[in-house]
C-alpha cells in the first residue's frame, strides 16, 4: 500500500472513530437532558398514577448472591404502592425458560413486601426496556404510568415512554444493599441509549411480541365506586 493511501485510510478511520464518539456523547446527552426533570427518588414529588411499571432484572448476581438492584426495585415499587402513589403494578421482564422468569420472581418478592397478588400484573414479554415500555402503552393501554428502576436506567426508560407520547415519570430505586441510589453506570447503558434513539427515529422498531390487548385491573376510586 502506498504511503499516501495509508495516510488516507488512517485519516478516514480517525474521522470515523471521532464521529462515533460524538454521536454516542450527543445521544446520551439528549436522552439524559430530556428525561432528567421527570426522575426523582422522592415519592412525594411524583404525580399520582394508577399504575407503576417495574422493569425486570435478575434476582441474582453472576456470583449467585442476591442482587441489590432487584431488591431495590421491589422495595421502591412496594413503597409507591403503600403510600398510594400507584394502585397497581406491572412487573415486566424476560422469561426465556423454566429456570429463569423475572416477572414471577418480582411478583413473589412484591407479595413478601406486602403487595397483594391481585395488585400485580405480569408481563412476560418485557425482553428489553423498549419492549416493556411500549407494551405498557400499546398492550396494556396505559396513557400514563410511573417507571421503577435504578437511576442510570430511568433516563432511557422515560425517554422511550415520552417519545411514544406517554407522560411518564420514574422513581429511582436503590442500587445498593444499604439503600443508597448508587453511582453505577454500566458502559452498556451508554450504548443502549443510542440504540433507543435508533429504535425510535431510524429503525421504527416494534416490540418482539405484542399480542392481544390486556386490561389492567386498577381498583376504582372511592367516589367512583359509590357513584
Summary keywords:
about 230 residues; alpha/beta; Rossmann fold; six-stranded parallel beta sheet; disordered C terminus
Overall pLDDT confidence: 91
Beta strands, count: 6
The percent range for strand residues is 5-15%
What order do the SSEs take from the amino end to the carboxyl end, as H and E?
Answer: HEEHEHEHEHEHH
Shape: elongated
Number of helices: 7
Class by SSE composition = alpha/beta
Strand order of the largest sheet: 1-6-5-2-3-4
CATH architecture term: 3-Layer(aba) Sandwich
CATH superfamily: HUPs
Question: Helical percent range?
Answer: 40-55%
Tally of domains: 1
**Poorly predicted runs of 5 or more residues:** 223-227
CATH topology: Rossmann fold
Report the sheet with the most strands, covering strand number, pairing sense and barrel closure: 6 strands, parallel
Radius of gyration: 20 Å
CATH class identity: Alpha Beta
Q: In whole angstroms, how far apart are the ends? A: 83 Å
Could you characterize the architecture of this molecule?
By secondary structure, the protein is an alpha/beta fold. The protein has a single domain (33-216), classed as Rossmann fold (3-Layer(aba) Sandwich), CATH 3.40.50.620. Helix content is 44%, strand content 11%. The protein has 7 helices and 6 strands. A 6-stranded parallel sheet has the order 1-6-5-2-3-4, with helices on both faces. Helix 1 crosses helix 5 (151-163), helix 1 (3-35) packs across helix 6 (187-201) and helix 4 crosses helix 5 (151-163). The longest helix has 33 residues, at 3-35. It is elongated and about 75 Å long. The chain starts with a helix and ends with a helix. Residues 223-227 have low confidence and may be disordered.
Amino acid at each position: 500500500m502506498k504511503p499516501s493511501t495509508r495516510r488516507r485510510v488512517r485519516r478516514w478511520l480517525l474521522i470515523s472513530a471521532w464521529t462515533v464518539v460524538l454521536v454516542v456523547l450527543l445521544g446520551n446527552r439528549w436522552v439524559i437532558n430530556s428525561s432528567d426533570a421527570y426522575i426523582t427518588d422522592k415519592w412525594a414529588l411524583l404525580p399520582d398514577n394508577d399504575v407503576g411499571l417495574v422493569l425486570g432484572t435478575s434476582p441474582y448476581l453472576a456470583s449467585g448472591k442476591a442482587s441489590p438492584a432487584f431488591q431495590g426495585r421491589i422495595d421502591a415499587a412496594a413503597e409507591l404502592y403503600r403510600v398510594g402513589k400507584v394502585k397497581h403494578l406491572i412487573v415486566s421482564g424476560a422469561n426465556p425458560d423454566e429456570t429463569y422468569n423475572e416477572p414471577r420472581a418480582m411478583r413473589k418478592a412484591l407479595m413478601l413486601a406486602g403487595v397483594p397478588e391481585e395488585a400485580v400484573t405480569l408481563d412476560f414479554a418485557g425482553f428489553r426496556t423498549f419492549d416493556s415500555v411500549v407494551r405498557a402503552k400499546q398492550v396494556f393501554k396505559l396513557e400514563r404510568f410511573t417507571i421503577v428502576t435504578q437511576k442510570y436506567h430511568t433516563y432511557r426508560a422515560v425517554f422511550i415512554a415520552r417519545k411514544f407520547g406517554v407522560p411518564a415519570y420514574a422513581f429511582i430505586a436503590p442500587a445498593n444493599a444499604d439503600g443508597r441510589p448508587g453511582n453505577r453506570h454500566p458502559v452498556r447503558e451508554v450504548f443502549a441509549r443510542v440504540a433507543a434513539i435508533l429504535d425510535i427515529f431510524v429503525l421504527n422498531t416494534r416490540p418482539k411480541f405484542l399480542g392481544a390487548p390486556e386490561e389492567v385491573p386498577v381498583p376504582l376510586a372511592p367516589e367512583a365506586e359509590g357513584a
